[in-house]
Amino acid sequence: MKLTREQRRVIGAIVRHKSDNFGELAGLTGLDPLTDFRDGDFRDVDFDGTDVSAFVLSEAALDGALWDGAIGLDQARLPPDVAAAIASGARYRDAFWASAHPPSWAEDWGRDASGLWCSFRVPNTEVTQRLRWCPPGRFLMGSPESEPGRDDDEGPQHEVVFAEGFWMFETAVTEALWSAVMGGPAESPAFPKTEIDWTQARAFAEKLNALLPGLSLGLPSEAQWEYACRAGTDTPYSFGERVTMKQVRYGGGGLVPVASLPPNPWGLREMHGNVWEWCEDGWQDNYNDAPTDGSARPPDGAAARVVRGGSWDFVARYVRSAFRYWFHPSFRRDRIGFRCARVQREQSDSGSGVAAPADLARERSAERATSQGRGRRHPAGAAEAVRTPVWAKRINADQFGTYADLAIPTGKGRFVLQRMRLIQPGTFSMGSPDDEAGRYTDEGPVHEVKIQQGFWLFDTPCTQQLWRAVMGSSPSYFKSAQRPVERVSFEDVAKFLAALNDRVNDLDLILPSEAQWEYACRAGTQDATYAGPMEILGDNNAPVLDNIAWYGGNSGVEYDLRRGYDSADWPDKQHEHTKAGTRIVKRKLPNRWGLYDMLGNVWEWCADEWHSNYDGAPTDGSAWIVGSDGAARRVVRGGSWDFVARHVRSASRSGFHPSYRDDRIGFRCARVQA
């Protein structure tokens, strides 16, 4: 393949700054990807979203190419040497499955912002059902004694370990799905099937299993249900300390169609409210002697069976993650439904291999290596491969990678948990290209930075709850335990770090360097945001931000505090609102490495002194400090709830005096991994 110097320059510039998609890149050069790249070098190319059905690849170099999102990849029509190269190392769509082959019952599969999913179709119908992957892990089942609304049957709180992941229906079984399997009319196809007793729910699973051999569905155990509902959270609801009718149907609000309310962090819908859901377990009025491996407690003859989740006509305390209730197995009502689960088994599914997904979340973030040095990250490995830190209450891994939970005692056996994510070493391009929308000149020049040591990073900004646990009181204007602490200066944060490190053995928390912050924020991406490129339609209108960040365009939508700022005259808002402020953490989607609110909500202090550009900046990921007397401005990153869209980009940066306090400035902590 011979290219002119200008063509090579254009290709290089686009690859560094524009897109992962090879077909798009080639098209932007004015070249025909089907002919001008014949026999070309496709090493480290990501074909995600590219139609390769007509590509000429017979002699191409394919080392490290990623095929899992390619369109039209038919190995049967590829030349034998290319098919062999793909099968031996390059990744294609079927590499989603750990066995490298999809199970016979799976029709489609993939990964989105919530994690891994697959779906099946009921034979001889057009009815499909999506399942969500619940990864192996451990959690505290039940509620702490301090949780508002708690009942005694929610304890004692105990750890449950899932050695294997499992699939869970994304939604409750609908009337349409019930009708496709069991027969009969579906008067409201998109609504949950109700008035189903426990024995009927099990009969549905058995019949569906007969239609799709290897599917092996059943009712979830109570532990599976709560683990899936919590989805890595430990608050009363997977949405935080409180819920609204926009998130959960409860309090007499009436039944809603499935998938009409926001998903939890693992993509599961309506786990809280709407309908009670049958579980496999027999009822016991506490967790004494409960299994710790996630299995169900067997029923005692005709004993009552567990239901979870609450329903549309119950008050908020009944729709908490830990709340549990029971009914007789023959009981039916218009507020009781169910969803199915599939436990992983160590045998093949009708010759198609074990139906466990490969850990694509980790693989893709670890292996997206290109010759331009963008987003390279070494594999995270399993949590067991990382020494459990002295300071950690527990360590585990999920679809985002390895995490550890830091527990800060608050007295009387209570504690505040803060999750920290292990960020692996790697290399990335820091700063923004000249043509990025909204760019400032202080974001350049773009330069390669090699993060030489892995580090732990808070998965959210420091909350007011955590600040109070360490410092005794919160200085924040927007009073709310799960909102970011704000009105804290760089100097205040230094005192917080000293106090917290003094309380927890071997903790050694610091502020991240500016390079560490941007590396973690980008999480292997190179666009303006970790959700993709930014199109700025108005000062406060950049649609790409809506799902990932609180900023001037959306921070007042359904605002829930009495105290807030008048936002009625903010220009060009993406959504209309009249009062705005900070928001509860983890209400927007995380980036690929499991970090929330890296963009928007509050600016975050970094360790570096402010410099007006990157000329002379360190390239090893360390903080840029030139030995001043401490009075120099310090860097903040990420934008905030009241800033316009252009400030809420991965490369955006600003600086303030170390004594400066503001209700739009907070922080998150880091710890370098020795």
**Strand order within the widest sheet?**
3-4-5-8-14-9
Portion in beta strands: 15-25%
Rg: 26 Å
Question: What is the CATH C-level name of the largest domain?
Answer: Alpha Beta
Question: How would a crystallographer describe the biggest sheet?
Answer: 6 strands, antiparallel
Give the CA-based shape.
globular
Head-to-tail CA distance between termini = 46 Å
Description:
- With 674 residues, this protein is α+β, with helices and mostly antiparallel strands.
- The chain is 15% helix and 19% strand.
- The protein contains ten helices and 28 strands.
- The chain is globular, with a radius of gyration of 26 Å.
- It starts with a helix and ends with a strand.
- 48% of the residues are buried.
Can you give me a brief rundown of this structure?
The chain is of the alpha+beta class and 674 residues long. It has helices at 5-17, 22-28, 80-88, 175-182, 198-211, 222-230, 360-367, 464-471, 490-503, 514-522, and strands at 66-67, 91-92, 108-112, 115-121, 128-134, 137-141, 158-162, 166-169, 217-218, 276-282, 305-308, 324-327, 336-337, 341-343, 376-377, 392-398, 401-411, 414-423, 426-430, 447-451, 455-458, 565-566, 579-580, 603-609, 634-637, 653-656, 665-666, 670-672.
List keywords for this structure.
single chain, 674 residues, alpha+beta, paralog of FGE (formylglycine-generating enzyme), six-stranded antiparallel β-sheet, 10 helices
